[in-house]
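To whoever is on call:

I kicked off a structure prediction for a single chain this morning and the downstream step that reads the tokens threw a length-mismatch warning. I double-checked the sequence; it's 526 residues and nothing unusual in it as far as I can see. Pasting both halves so you can look.
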Amino acid sequence: MFRLQNLLRFQEDRRANMAIILALAMVPLILVIGVAVDLSRAYVVRSRMAYALDAAGLAVGSTQGSDALLQDTMEKFFYKNYPETEMGTTMGLGMTIDSVNNKVTLSATVHLDTIFMKIVGIDSLDVAYSNEITREIKGLEVVLALDTTGSMASGGKIQGLRTASHDLVDILFGDQTAPEKLKVGLVPFVTSVNIGASNPSYVKWGVSQYAPWITGGVTVNQASYTGTTWKGCVREREDAVHTAASPDVADVYDGSTGPNGQWAPYFWPREPYSKPGSTSGNSYCSNRSNNVGVTNLNNVGASWDAIDENASDNSYGQAGPNKACPRAILPLTNNRSVIESEIDALVPWGDDTGTIVHAGLAWAWRVISPSAPFTDGVAYGTTGWNKAIILLTDGDNTSIRQSSCKSNNGGPDHSYTGYGYTSDEGTLGSSAAGSSMSARASKAVANENARLLEVCNNIKALETGGKKDVVIYTIAFGTNVSSNAKSLLQACASDTGKYFASPSSSELKAAFQQIAKELSKLRISK
């Protein structure tokens, strides 16, 4: 039987109110938690997308080529770091290039389906990110010290060197022809270096500019060498005593440091043509006169046999006073066409005349130094400028013996170099008396190796405000570089990451590209 009092009692019962209130409150609470989860997912997407887009931007900034190539590079690097398995779907990936201000802007948008926000009608979120990559507009001076000895003619090495050098120029210059803050120099070397008797591209480096730096002027002994003129190579300066405790300062430093501030003109002397008394015409010395039986190396009456001052890839064993005198130094310049022309002109020089690596490195230092005789380099420590030297050789320091010349004719035993006859004259710290010719040659090579490290260490010691003034990269090119030579080059480099072993031309190409990209430092501007 229904009673009114029972109904009134139910109305007054409060025991289930909390359940009702909690049920009503769960809806907004779940929505808040769901929104937080979806927004957290969107944040993760943006973080991963930003990393991928920054990596793509750096890759694009260090790549030279068409817009299509840059677009392809951006996509490859982005999707490598943000694969399709990641949350969301990439809806837009864009890039704009500002060649005037040297900037690249990249943007990406990812479409993310929501999980909980669907409850309130938000089915998806579009997550966007953009960045701007700027190539650092810092000044850069780079000098390439390049081995152009006769061995570079084998295995396509000289062509491989040209190709790799062009790649380096392409990366550094981009599409610019004369950038204000980029200068490149070249120092081809053999056992001597050509400072340039004259250079039509650089009038300031004419003969008159060298007068203060050449002993006796550039016409010394020129009259004795019929049919030729001084090409521009010099003998290296050397103090009388050179020890670890008391090293000289003439040949392992830049500029005019030390008592021997000048260089003597390089002229390879006449050498005997055949055995005394022989009329067969058999030749024994590599740089000979055509007078049969001549034993006096300074015989003014003798004329040169087959003087050839022009080397090529296939003809590089010249004769004459400029034998083993390579192409002239190219001082620092921002003229891209001149640099590329000089790279194309690189050829091997002086078959079987040896290699003196430290001479090439020392002259590269003199080219990049602000001190005379080359003064195109900015002062050390100049804000916003960096300097680097790239040293390449395809072999060891060597002292080449001339075929039977000494024993048969009384002529020099070893080839002439930027240090004269190192074994016969006892230069480079080797004893001129009391030891065999072979022992002198071995001593000369040992001293060449020691001096290479001296030049390297002297350059690496340059420091302004806690920052190294010059960075050294070294490259062992080809398969004939000994383990000892590789160790020397590793020790010479500024750090282990700046030494490259490049047995093949393709590996050399990769090394030059890596160096060029390191030198073209990038930063994310915003």
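Update from on-call: the warning came from a stale cache, not from the record. Cleared it. Sanity check on the structure: Residues 199-211, 217-223, 275-279, 292-301 have pLDDT under 50 and may be disordered.
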